[in-house]
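User: Here's a protein and a ligand (iron/sulfur cluster). What would the complex look like?
Assistant: Let me lay out the input and then the predicted complex.
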Amino acid sequence: MCHRSNVLTEALEILERYHGSINPEEFIAYYAVMREMHPFGVLVSIILTQNTSDKNALNALMNLIKSLGPRLTPQDFLKISDSELEELIKPSGMYRVKVRAIRELLKLVTKDPDILTKEDPEKLRKLLLSVKGVGPKTADVFLLMVRGYPTFPIDTHIRRILYRLGIVDKSEDYESMRSKVMELIPKDKYLRAHLLLITHGRKICMARKPRCNECPIKHLCQKVGIR
Ligand code: SF4
């Protein structure tokens, strides 16, 4: 545990210096929070990123903003039909599944308008996970970015880097990885660590042909040169 902790802590310190400032536009949820979008709009933004690139999700989000306004409140979504919503979010892919999830979430916030902002975070996490089409990463990104709740969302880039650094196993499940990382780094670093690892996964440690020669954490990595 001590060794792993050192590896992740050291990697994050190096990545902080290497990647420098983070552009919010490269992170949909972060971007939505910075634009002071309604919490429901932020949640929809996170759903748009599921199983697609942030670029496609951003195109879908821009369609929504153009059509419904900048805040994306629950009321905005009540004004349009499923087929209109499908058309707007089509660029993000899997749009039928996403529309279904958005409609389910809309039912929750219509019943209790404060649920996203006031519900106990652990209860809210369970509630969000009970909605078909909402996975743990979506729930955790929302809780971390909107509620400031100390949880660590694991996405595909983070999973890959943690594996290559020898911090998690290939077959490890989401909850196990999440709790492992949460034990290894201080709570106030969760958001920054999340953004830095994703940035590294997009720019250097890609799934195929990672740029190991340029990687500033290669001395910590167990898979240098992987293809
Ligand atoms: S050395 Fe290569 S595989 Fe290891 S973290 Fe860096 S880019 Fe990824």
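Summary: The pocket of iron/sulfur cluster is lined by residues 161, 164, 204-205, 210-212, 215, 217-218, 221, 223-224, 226 (CB under 6 Å).
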